[in-house]
Amino acid sequence: MSKKQNKLIAKEILNNAIKGAFLKFDPRFMVKNPVMFMVEVRSILTLILSIFPTLFNGNSDERIYNILITFILFVTLLFANFAESIAEGRGKAQAATLRQSKKDSKARRIKSDGSEEMLNSSELKIGDIVLVKAGELIPNDGEIIEGAASVDESAITGESAPVMREAGGDFSSVTGGTTVLTDFLKIKILVGAGESFLDKMINLVEGAERQKTPNEIALNTLLIVLSLSFLVVVVSLYPFMQFLGVSLPISWLVALLVCLI
Q: How many structural domains compose the chain?
């Protein structure tokens, strides 16, 4: 891919991320992240207090303070949404690039009589034998039956150093979408069209949300419990201070809750 194409893709990702950062303010999306949803609710509350500072027995002199808190919360949400949109955009752009390269790739299939024919990699079937020479993409997942070569797997694993693949032993499996750098490989295709490791990666990025790991679920549960605990503490603080005869602005409680979380 040329530098010009990379710049165009980066610009498109940035534009989509800016748009997505604002679209993610939708409460239906925010509620999926309870902590950020609480921040959004507090930002709405301080916005109301900025417009009506005397609400909840507030003081009109606190308008600037309320506006400042609202701005800080808004910027926090905006940057969080922007970072998430950038990550999603990069993942989808990479998936689109991989899908396009797979779509454009050709395969050299060896017929039963030993002759060769060129066809699209999507036309390969399980059991087909293909010949991949230096500089060519491996069309699909398979097993090496002849040859040894250095293979660039950076498109799949992210590892820049090439690896050796050869027939027999523990290093005979190859993944579609990787590139043969030296010599040649004869490969027996083991999966059908749309079932390769590369296809699964693309579908994972482009499809529905992935399943959360146990650690992510545990961490998310912990954050929810802590957030609710802090919320109870802060909400209880208001009537307690009223009982003591101390006037405590709602915006202060919002700021305190943000600091605790």
A: 2
